[in-house]
Design a protein that fits this description.
The chain is α/β, with parallel strands linked by helices and 363 residues long. It has two domains: 73 residues, Orthogonal Bundle (5,6-Dimethylbenzimidazole Phosphoribosyltransferase, Chain: A, domain 1), CATH 1.10.1610; 265 residues, Nicotinate-nucleotide-dimethylbenzimidazole phosphoribosyltransferase (CobT), large domain (Rossmann fold). The chain contains 14 helices and seven strands. The chain has a five-stranded parallel sheet, sandwiched between helices. It has a two-stranded antiparallel ribbon with strand order 6-7. The longest helix has 20 residues. It starts with 12 loop residues before the first helix and ends with a strand.
Length: 363
């Protein structure tokens, strides 16, 4: 199957203009809701409708997979934790389960490359590519056939979700060692040196950090040879989970469905997705700023401003889900707030000396 994506449309420009104009008619000083106004305009433009509809089915999809590099001491946790956490997601016991329930989202977990003998439901393993991905510091993560299978899976997963009614998507990750390939991908696409992208991940000590830095250095040497080809880059230093996630993010844009990006791993997948499908990033917002140093490079490369900065580094989609209520709020302001005419409130321009204004709001 082809790994090519069709032309990505931009969010609807006339709706964007209409929504900006609507904000000027709502009962508040212009611009006084700050970035909430920008986010509401983003939602409306993605939907092609002003005012926008409230989100009916926000959906978190967790891409789970093991990475061979974890065997070389780059994580504070053993690789079997990946399989254990998949079971925890299914039982509803993870942070993402609690946070998604609070934010009104549902969670789906998929095994793309978990190295386990555990018997998961068929719905979890339907898109599985292999058991673990190769150790990227010394071998390719995937074969040619496997990277195509992973990209095909990611596209199919996005289609399944949109066809099932999802109107906002979040890509979560689960995989011990996955911040190492993520850092390599980011460094390769951002032109950064290894030391600029090495973070603590799950909380490695200094010795673990040094092992991780060496693995990223060696992986980056291999990645730079193929950095101009996103499919080859995923094959060489990605993994089935990250490749599927990249295709998922690109296909969400093809399907005109907004996405809230999470942290480091989804950020790495997003950088590759933008290479696979230029313009896809117009359909994304950054949920938060991760404490992982490489994530700052992602935000810079994609020209995205994070909604939240809460020192998060868990992954799973938690940072994106934490931002979801604000995106929902921004959309509901446009749909439910009265205009000056509706409320019988004077919308005339008041000379500044007659209006006590502090920080742009009513004071």
């Amino acid at each position: 199957m082809s790994t090519d994506f069709p032309h990505i449309p931009t969010p609807d420009a006339p709706t964007h203009r209409e929504t900006v104009a609507r904000h000027l008619r709502l009962t508040k000083p212009a611009g006084s809701l700050g970035r909430l106004e920008e986010l509401g305009v983003f939602v409306a433009a993605c939907q092609g409708q002003c005012p926008p509809r409230p989100f009916a089915r926000p959906r978190v999809v967790i891409f789970a997979g093991d990475h061979g590099v974890a065997a070389h001491g780059v994580s504070a946790f053993p690789s079997e934790v990946t399989a254990q956490m998949v079971s925890n997601f299914l039982a509803g016991g993870a942070a993402i389960n609690a946070m998604a329930a609070t934010a009104g989202a549902t969670v789906r977990v998929l095994d793309l490359a978990v190295d386990t003998d555990d018997a998961y439901p068929e719905a979890v393993t339907a898109h599985k590519v292999r058991r673990s991905s190769g150790s990227i510091d010394r071998e390719d993560a995937l074969t040619d056939a496997e990277v195509v299978a992973a990209i095909t899976a990611g596209r199919a997963i996005a289609d399944e979700e949109v066809d099932g009614g999802a109107d906002l998507l979040i890509a979560g990750d689960m995989g011990i060692g996955n911040t190492t390939p993520a850092a390599v991908l980011i460094a390769a696409l951002a032109g950064a040196e290894p030391v600029a992208v090495v973070g603590r991940g799950t909380g490695v000590d200094d010795q673990g950090w040094m092992r991780k830095a060496a693995a990223i250095r060696d992986g980056l040497r291999r990645a730079r040879k193929v950095s101009a080809n996103p499919v080859a880059l995923l094959r060489t230093v990605g993994g089935a989970d990250i490749a599927a996630m990249a295709a998922f993010l690109a296909q969400a844009a093809v399907r005109k469905t907004p996405v809230i990006l999470d942290g480091l791993v989804s950020g790495a997948a997003a950088l590759v997705a933008e290479e696979l499908a230029p313009g896809a990033s117009e359909w994304w917002v950054a949920g938060h700023r991760s404490v992982e140093p490489a994530h700052a490079l992602v935000l810079e490369q994609l020209n995205l401003k994070p909604i939240l900065d809460l020192d998060l580094r868990l992954g799973e989609g938690t940072g994106a889900v934490a931002a979801l209520p604000l995106l929902s709020m921004a959309a509901r302001v446009l749909a439910e707030m009265a205009t000056f005419d509706d409320a019988g409130v004077s919308g005339r321009t008041i000379p500044l000396p007659e209006l006590k204004v502090k920080n742009g709001g009513w004071r």
